[in-house]
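Q: You know discrete backbone vocabularies at least as well as I do. I have my own habits and do not want them to colour yours. No explanation is needed for now; the record alone will do.
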Amino acid sequence: MDGVTGILVVDDFPPFREWASSVLQNDPALRVIAYAADGIEAVQKAEELRPGLIILDVGLPKLNGMEAARLILKASPACKIIFLSQECSADVVSEAIRLGASGYVVKVRAAKELLKAIRAVLEGKRYVSKGVSPQWSMPKGR
């Protein structure tokens, strides 16, 4: 795909998947290669397609986003995951980062931050949304 990052978008709300796709298609270096509506489908598509990046919601049916990410990263440790969720508690964000996510964007800030987060993560940086409470920190012992 010559410098183009394939992206799997995982969210159970179709209008949000469509919005994310429309944002991502504006960057020629990004290509949405598949969608998933639940955690089990996300794991299956990640294993089958090996996307470079997964945009993943926390609250998913069948298998939540955290468990899906754990399974995906076990099978494909090089895969980058950015959580994109309404959930913004420090505990949830800390857990996402602890399990290996490269980024976390709160949905209310997605319009301003999603592409910024993707660029940062693809450059090897970590990105955590400004919408997350300032008490957020890495879990102790890390």
Notes: Residues 134-142 have pLDDT under 50 and may be disordered. Residues 26 and 136 are 31 Å apart (CA to CA). The helical segments are 14-24, 39-49, 65-75, 90-98, 110-122. The radius of gyration is 14 Å.
